[in-house]
Amino acid sequence: MSSTSTSHSTFSSHRVYPVSPAELFSAFSQADRKRRWFVEGEGWQVDEFVVDFRPGGSERSSFRFEGGASFSNDTTYLDIVPDRRIVFAYVMATEGKPFSASLATIEFVPEGEGTRLVYSEQAAYLDSDNADAQTADRKAGWAELLEALARHLDETAG
Questions:
Q1: Residue 24 lies in a domain
Q2: 56 occurs within a structural domain
Q3: Which residue range(s) make up the domain with 144?
Q4: pLDDT of residue 1
Q5: Is residue 118 helix, strand or coil?
Q6: Of 144, 94, 95, 104, nearest in space to 124 by CA
Q7: pLDDT in tens, 19-72
Q8: Given this model, what pLDDT does residue 157 score?
């Protein structure tokens, strides 16, 4: 018997980057830049990465770690205000089976000579009754992505 439960959570994370809102926004809006920090990395195989960055547009990525199971991320962009905000919905799946659906907002807030990125997410974890563990994993995943973004910005600075 398979589970049909759904658990929910809301969380937010923030980080200050030493770049302008426009520079930080471009790391999300330019597909070649986003691919480098969002889906590439040691041990990761990128099977697909296609982006149509506009309100109503979509993003699809498919990837696997060290030849393991296939993961996918299907995103729909709902609202984009250049250099200020991105609102999107996304579904994550393993081997084609969805395991979460989320609504997320990224805000770019000027702070001193840099920018505070504020990430907020409302998530539904499918066939799961442990939102705490799922949320901890999701927050850790986004912390890793925000660190990869910081490395990407360091590499492209100057």
A1: yes
A2: no
A3: 8-41+80-156
A4: 39
A5: strand
A6: 104
A7: 999 999 999 999 999 999 999 988 889 999 999 999 999 999 999 989 899 999
A8: 83
Please report, for the domain that includes residue 145, its CATH number. 3.30.530.20
DSSP 8-class letter at 139: H
- The CA-atom distances, in angstroms, between 5 and each of 34, 40, 130, 138, 139 are 33, 32, 10, 18, 21
Residues 101, 124: contact at Cβ < 8 Å?
Answer: yes
Would the pTM count as exceeding 0.85? Answer: yes
Listed in sequence order, the residues at least 6 apart from 88 whose beta carbon sits closer than 8 Å to its beta carbon are 59, 75, 76, 77, 78, 103, 104
The answer to the question of residue 137 being in a domain is yes
* DSSP-derived secondary structure letter, 7: E
**Number of domains forming the structure of the chain:** 1
Q: Is residue 46 part of a domain?
A: no
**What is the predicted pLDDT for the residue at 158?**
61
Radius of gyration of the chain (CA): 16
pLDDT in tens, 82-102: 999 999 999 999 999 999 999
- Determine contact, residues 27/15, Cβ cutoff 8 Å: no
Single-letter amino acid, residue 3: S
Cα–Cα distance list, 68 to 46, 98, 126, 128 (Å): 12, 17, 21, 22
